[in-house]
Amino acid sequence: MSENNKVNIDELLAKVPTGLLINGEWVDASDGATFDVENPATGEVIATLASATSEDAKKAMDAACAVQDEWARTSTRERSDLLRRAFDLVQERKDEFAALMTLEMGKPLAESYGEVTYGAEYLRWFSEEAVRNYGRTLPAPEGTLRMITRRKPVGPCLLITPWNFPLAMATRKIAPAIAAGCTMVVKPAKLTPLTTQYFAQTMIDSGVPAGVVNVVSGKSASAISEPIMADSRLRKISFTGSTPVGKTLLKAAADNVLRTSMELGGNAPFIVFEDADIDQAVEGAMGAKMRNIGEACTAANRFIVHECVADEFAEKFAKRIGELKVGNGLDEGVTCGPLVEKKALDNITALVDDAVAKGAKVLIGGKPGEGKGYFYSPTVLTNVSRDARVAQEEIFGPIAPILTFSDEKEAIALANDTEYGLASYVFTEDSNRMWRVGDGLEFGLMGFNAGVISNAAAPFGGVKQSGMGREGGAEGIEEYTSLQYIAMPNPYANA
Ligand code: NAD
Fold first, then answer.
1. How distant is the alpha carbon of residue 365 from its chain centre?
2. Nearest C-alpha neighbor of 403 from the set 483, 302, 494, 491
3. What's the pLDDT score for residue 30?
4. Global confidence as pTM
5. From the CB of residue 489, how many other CB atoms can be counted at a distance below 10 Å?
6. Is 263 a catalytic residue?
7. Residue 422 CB–ligand 1 contact under 6 Å
8. Which of 40, 121, 370, 386 fits 338 for a cystine, CB–CB 3.0-4.6 Å?
9. How far is ligand 1, taken at its centre, from the CA of residue 244, in Å?
10. From the CA of 462, how far away is ligand 1's center (Å)?
């Protein structure tokens, strides 16, 4: 355990609720079923939680619906203050949240602390946005009407989160839903539910009323989501996860014409032009690729490097990657943890093998680790064929494939040659080129000479098959509101 984190793991795990949160109470599953949560660095079971059934999901939905009207009538200041208290409590518990995320997800402790800061920021940001949920007054061109708009809470929401950022993906949805006045059922990923369970307890400790936030963890996602999606009282689904599951949920959402926010997969290009500051690009690449063990939807997936600087970039990048210390994220000095599960490790191994079979050269790494955890050595591949799987699919691991190009148009075309459109990165010292390339790229997020771009104050989201809707920023709260237009006669119209 690192010097700066003195948390006693057994005591911490004993504090994490293991039940389902329904109507303000932690309860067992109706059939008594449970599921295990593993530490991916050791393969050991660290907790056993109640596994929600469809019946439990319906009860959670009933609880959310029962208090929706009352919750919608609370003042924005009340909801703002609640979020601010939650922000302060997460800060107080930062050592516990950091240790918990590393334990269940594997990321190095320093990165878990980074996620505590980032994830908590959504609580603070939306506590500030809650009281600025403005409508507009509109001039009627003919002068016959007085017209205003106002934003109302959309209603009960289903929030489904992924395993890779267990705290931030929860706060990015729960905080704007609270700010807007919505009640919710939250379904965390089964690989990393502990952080959400502990965060839900933190919301209770901050004073959230019973029924506003309900949490149903469980081993079968569809057993939980299907009855809720089929309930005509549900008004919105916000989902972060893979594109295939997002498509399934979009189809189900059509039946009740639900409002949807979809934060789906990515295949981010990281373009390095011949005029880039290569050292800056390498530092940017370390953040864009290696943060979160490469398991981020914003992770640089394809390094598209001008042929004149490709060798220099690859060598410097490989040198920096060679400095990473792979191991249990709780151990001092570890900078790259394990993959989240065995399936992920097998997938990464297969992707690298496929690239090598198609002619790629392993500059560094290229092999699974030893021992019980799901480790893979951080890898740089050069000479990667454009039809290698690693250049086509979302990698979700510490693998950096380098492809080359010879002119700007080719770089843009290669970058856009994917069904995804979430994050993109461009490194160049030429500001005209920066804007030109920015105009050409079909991505919701762009980093110009920057490798880490997420921020609670910015609208996060993709285009194409990376999804729809935006989280964070001024736009984030709008996803949880419906706009109502009100008209009345202008008393002076005929005066
Ligand atoms: P996943 O799609 O397998 O699971 C995401 C969530 O959906 C989990 O809670 C899971 O239990 C649930 N789920 C799975 N099948 C379901 C079903 N049939 N019905 C309802 N819920 C279901 O994704 P994952 O492996 O947890 O996360 C990785 C993926 O998430 C990657 O593709 C990544 O790019 C994406 N992601 C996107 C963003 C973003 O903001 N765009 C952020 C983080 C992760």
1. 27
2. 302
3. 98
4. 0.97
5. 10
6. yes
7. yes
8. 40
9. 9
10. 15
